[in-house]
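Reply to dn_fold:

You asked what the input looked like. This is it:
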Amino acid sequence: MARLGLGDRWRCVFANDFDPIKAKAYRVNFPDAKDHFHEGDVWELSPDNLKETVDLAWASSPCQDFSLAGSRAGLAGSRSSAFFGFWTLVQSLNKLGRAPRIIVIENVVGLLTSHGGKDFGALCKALADEGYRFGAVEIDAARFVPQSRPRVFVVATRTAVPSALDGLEAVAPLHSKRIVAAYERLPKTVKRAWVWWHLPFPPVHNQAIDALLEPDGASAWFTQSKVDHLIGLLNERHTEKLVEARKRGYRVVGTLFRRMRVENGQKRQRAELRFDGIAGCLRTPGGGSSKQVVVVIDRGKTRARELTGREAARLMGLPDTYLLPDRKSSALKICGDGVVAPVVAWLGRELLESLAEAAVEEIDGQEEGRRARA
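and this is what came back:
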């Protein structure tokens, strides 16, 4: 999805994932995968796998250990430690003079606070130690698609930062309170490498989830008993949302997702509703809010069904030409673990392309200097 977002101005020379479902989806959607895709553990990679010095390396390590829905194990977690596998490769490339000129590290906002901020501090120190300047921005995908999906993007560069991109100070909401607090916790030596990226904040997206859904007749709806069960999981506040939606007198579309909540010291499954035209954050089918549910209220009747794989793909900004696995659970897994393509496209246009151009100019200048000295 990062590749789709970056678009045709970028050429992908290497890709890696160890999940067979994601690997198959990549191969199906990108015919050139046979030339550059490696299915396997990132820890098994070495500089020999990368023949070129790349302009950009994108790392989206598993987010469960940072997410509020996960174990909050931090970088020490078995899944998120994939980042250190990636970083070991970067360090090896740097020793050979072939480190990526730009790095993007994308993850859930829990990265900023995991272990009291120590994980984010370790990440920033790792970047600084390898000669990168870096900064972070927080973007909610709801500004691009009808899905609430806040993510943090750490963008690092080895070349001089163009003055137009160096904001010198934090500007909300791109630099959220979480990012500012995370920055303040950094050691002074690491802060010296920090950049407050100066970017125009993306406009608000106006499309509602209803526009992305399949026709009512094309989907299998829950039985009334199952709908009643879901309604029974609502707490008082969300029950009031349902009652108010029923009073509107016109078709209302919303989403429902289940969460474990602690009430009176006991864990209890609860359902939560939203009727603001935005879906809750998509997750993998096995965790967090599990499979998200579409709720339609029309002429006094409440119906509900699971979100389809294609609908989930649309909420990730993927075109309908993007080929999904036949199994819905696999399609939902790919989408729940992905990055929203239009967010990547915006980041590419507003920041990454400019950094890549600056890197090329710097390299050209160095080569001219060498020729002049010769």
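Residues 341-373 form the longest helix (33 residues).
Hope that clears it up.
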